[in-house]
Amino acid sequence: MEFVTIAGVKVPVLPHSEKFPVFPSSLVETDSVKQTLQKILYPMLEGMPVLLVGDAGVGKNALIYYINSLRKQPTLRFSFNEDTLPEDLIGSYRILLDGKGFTWSNGPLTNALSEGLSFVADEMNLCAPNIIKRFSSVYESNYLDLLEGSGERVKGKTGFWFIGTQNPSEGFEGRKPLPFDITKHFAVVYVDPYSPDEMFFILKKLYPMLSEEVLQQIIRISLESEKRIKSGEIGKGDLEKYHFNLRTLQKYCNRLVLFGAKDKTVSVREALYLFEEPFRKKEDKEKQRELIESEFGGAVKLVPTKGYVQNSTIFWNDKEIKTWDEKKTISLLSKYPTPEPILHFLDQVFTAIQSKENILIEYREDQDPQEFLPLFTELTGIEIESVMLSKGMHTSDVVGALKPTEEGNIESVTWVDGPLTRAIRKGNIILISGLESAGAELVEKMNMLTDDARSLTLPPESGEYLPIKLTDTSVVFGMKSFRASKSVTTISRAFRNRFTPILFPELEDVNVLQEILEFFLPEGVLPRSLTRFHLKAKELSEKRTIGSANLMPYRFGIANLLKWKNHIYRYNQTDVKDIAIRGGKIYYTNQIADPKERKELERLLEGFLSGVEVVSTLFEEIEEKKKTFTTESGLNRKNWWDPELHKRDPLTGVAKKLNSGEETKRGIEINTPETGGGTKEGPDAWYGQDTQGNQGQGEPQGGGGAWGYRTEELYKQFLKKRRLLWDYSIMVGLTEFKSVFGKELEEVELNLEQLFDPEIDIHRMYKNEGSRVDARKYISYKSGRGDTKIFDKTTIEKNDEKLKGVEVTFLVSKCRRIFNFEYSIAMLSALLVSLHILNEHDIKTSVHTFCDIKNSKDTVDIFHLKSAEEDYTPEKEEEVFGALCKNWHGDSIPEYQVLSNCERYFSPDAQTKIIVILSDFRGQRAKTYIEDELASFDTRKMKEAVLKNEEKNYVFLGVGLGSRYIAEHVFHDSLQITADNFYSMPNLIGAEIARLVQIHHSLRQ
Question: Which of 873, 884, 889, 839 has its CA nearest to residue 733?
Fold first, then answer.
């Protein structure tokens, strides 16, 4: 038997069928890659399935392709998504071309088993677990029963290997980790990101023609950019997730090889295109530009744009792109205005096309590039195929399905390609729109199409077992608008990473808009008047001067202005002013709901157009302008860069951060009053260097605890420098708090939101009408044993009603003993995150704090910050935050006292009642030894209260604060927050609440 050595492991080379593809791989064996390969290979040799988990772009599929390319083993890969069904993997019947019989077509999983191939279940965690369990016998026992077909058992032939991949649920929307009852059958391997040294080693190996200095510069830029994103320095507040990794670096290196490996201008330009241009905010772009220019030694003077078409080639500066229809290309370039922002946009698009990259065009909702679409999608002269996605579409609508051969004739059916499949076969330009609305279940189906494999696996009923591949002429364009809110779906970070994002310019500058209009209309008063009114209407709507009573502001985008121009152009008459006013009403004022506001805007419209009537020759000039659209053989546009604006001195230092958050992170100014115990809680309440102040874990014995710095010396310095305050308060507002911790809160919210997503429900339905024929139903009908309900109308839905009746109450011990900066900030973060996510999923919440506020030793004070019936509005968030920041000077009380009459915390409609209680659970008086704490009267009463309420179907989550692990002895479900993990408190509490909701609410359905 032939063997090959991979990462020091001897691996057999097995015979296989040559009809299946062996994907090439250019993976470079670094130290960490070798370690990862060994983690994969040993389980493989033992016949164990492997699950690869890792961030986007770390090379999970590349590792498998590399192993199999060396051992000459074909790989069958299937991209999982939410509408994946068992027959997609296992197989189905299809009708023969002559319509006289049927044959069974294996799915990719069945083919891999029977042929002894590797099967990659890509993005396996996107599929519903109950679907994955249909083929559990494959990863458990290496066989599959063809229940959908003949019923025979297919055993895995020697060489069969099952590999699953998944992105981590953290940072990836739409992802849930696979449950343990599935992963326990896999060898789980986490694929780590590359270190800077490994990145350099890999790039040097792949691109030996590039200088080491340039490689080191771009690696530093990439790492610093990723660091800034994670810290919130850039991209903060954006609802799209930016990501730079080795895949981005390889794009950069490919471009340098294409356009000039030794040209500094190219090095800077491509760094700007990949690391500055994707950002939406001006301040983010400026920071990235400063970073790039500092690395490359200052600004570089870029050459002006020059383009022309000759010998079936588009020459655009240093780019050369083949066109298959020269006349069409020239015609398109001469029919569209190309002001500076459009030229800059086109240069980025042409760069990506020549580099054979997938292109993601992103745009603001009111800056839809639809009017300019042919200018960048049809320039190569290749036919374009539009794939329009939407929520509710099935994969078959895009890929293809079995359909009747003649309309209304049920005698024969055949496979019909969907638009995506049709475009791949023809080598067309593929334009995929609606990515933001389709959702993961449809978009992720195209994973394999948009990565290095550049192919698509068709369902078994197509009769094709080999993936169909993109041709060299095809370019994949994706179109999506910016995400406006978290409730709106978007593409995953993993899918985005397979594209080169290019922002369509925001055409709002008065000179740019006027230049666009003057391309179609005579220069002068008319374009100027249209532009000024457009910008004024836009300003009034954005400031809510008009539409203030509406929930959403009016939107006036570039499409309104161009359609207004088209109206004037189409209906041009001698009285141009009347035509212009009519067009302005059609595309602007008619949509205004308030009559007074509409009339006022119409008055402004007439005012802006008042100068048009004095131009008596305007009608003739417009008619003459129409005649000027002649075909040109070449193009010479003005510079899209103003060289003078980009001359600047190189950076010699680092700018000072304006909002570093140091003031908040430093701590708070406090002093503690006496509590009646034997020991004061002021400067003398320091119990030795081992206790680290109190930190929720000091041993006060007769007295209370104290918050302080970690050493006595630091504490004394702290007191000298600050005015002593007698109240326990966090001196920070919500705005300042979010400016420091906002990025972390957003990340936690993103990671936790998907945990509350309802499960996927798959409803099998068959109808007399439809667009997708189910082969098994058709066979039953043809044999006379079934009815005419042969059309598959299976629906895949999320049942949002599943969370109805869930309520969560937070009980917070707000006493000075457990008060310290770390726990207070963590508690605030946890509550803000949890309340936001629960509110987003329509789960009612309430918040209550408890203590002995006057230190009277005989009262229990409960403060109701939010009831279950109150909405969690921004005003309520501010109110809750303010209350939790102030007045932590109360004494502690026995926690069991707040658990009497728990129904007061919930609404009458509550079905699943979850109580999250946060405290140190040390009762009114803390003890020296934990044994005494656990045996104390307060702890015993607390256990009794919890058990009593659990019998009434209350669900408890005890969150213990400090190093005393008391909560786990009192509650069935608990967390312990210590000095080592307090920063993860929001994530820990949110995830645990989600788990409790899923467990206990499901039991009551």
Answer: 884
Position of tokens 């994670």? 230
Helices (H), 378-460: 395-399, 419-426, 435-438, 440-443, 447-450
Amino acid at 476: V
Report the chain's C-alpha Rg in angstroms. Answer: 33
Pairwise CA distance, residues 343 & 478, whole Å: 20
Q: Is the separation of the CB atoms in 243 and 201 below 8 Å?
A: no
Looking at residue 441, its amino acid is: E
Average pLDDT, the chain: 79
In words, the CATH class of domain 3-191 is: alpha beta
319 by DSSP, 3-state: which?
strand
Distance CA 792, CA 805 (A): 34
734-754+801-1003: CATH number:
3.40.50.410
Alpha helices in 85-178 (DSSP H): 86-90, 108-115, 129-132, 136-141
Q: Let me know: does 498 contact 448? Beta carbons within 8 Å.
A: no
Q: At what angle do helices 60-70 and 31-45 cross, to 10 degrees?
A: 70
Give the separation between CA 567 and CA 261, rounded to whole angstroms. Answer: 49
Percent of the chain with pLDDT over 70: 76
End-to-end alpha-carbon separation of the chain, Å? 57
- Tens-digit pLDDT profile for residues 234-287: 887 677 778 899 999 999 999 999 998 888 889 999 999 999 999 998 999 999
- Which residues, in sequence order, are CB contacts of 861 under 8 Å at separation 6+? 850, 851, 852, 853, 854, 890
Strand 974-977 with 844-851, pairing: unpaired
Q: Residue for token digits 């905010």?
A: 281
Query: Rounded to an integer, what distance in angstroms lies between the CA atom of residue 25 and that of residue 33?
Result: 14
- 358-503 folds as Rossmann fold (3.40.50)
**Tokens of residue 783, six digits:** 């044999």
Encoded amino acid at 340, one letter: E
Would you place residue 792 in the very low, low, confident or very high pLDDT band (cuts 50, 70, 90)?
Answer: low
E strand or H helix at 308 = strand 307-310
pTM of the model: 0.68
- Tell me: the pLDDT tens digits for 912-926? 899 999 998 988 777
Residue whose pair of structure tokens reads 């919500």 in the numeric block: 734
CA–CA separation, 823 vs 979, rounded Å?
Answer: 8
Per-residue confidence at 696, pLDDT binned at 50, 70, 90? very low
Contacts of 65 (CB under 8 A, 6+ apart): 23, 24, 25, 27, 75, 452
| CA–CA dist 740, 231 (Å, integer) | 10
Which residues share a beta bridge with 439? none
Give dist(CA 683, CA 713) in Å, integer. Answer: 11
User: How far is Cα 213 from Cα 217, in angstroms, rounded to an integer?
Assistant: 6
Rounded CA-CA distance 756/746 in Å is 16
Higher pLDDT, 280 or 661: 280
pLDDT at 681 over 80: no
- Written in H, E and C, the secondary structure of 607-619 is HHCCCHHHCCCHH
- 184 neighbors 192 (Cβ within 8 angstroms): no
Angle of helix 264-275 versus helix 212-231 axis, rounded to 10: 20
Helix (H) or strand (E) holding 572: none
* 8 vs 823, residue with greater confidence: 8
Please identify which residue in the block is written with the tokens 């500055």.
276
Name the DSSP class of 386: E
Burial of 669 (0-12, 13-18, 19+ CB in 10 A): middle
Distance between CA atoms of 601 and 589, rounded to whole angstroms? 6
| 598 Cβ contact list (under 8 Å, min separation 6) | 589, 590, 592
What is the tens place of the pLDDT at every residue in 428-468? 999 998 887 765 556 766 777 888 778 888 887 787 878 89
**H or E element: which one contains 446?**
none
What pLDDT is stored for residue 646 in this prediction? Answer: 41
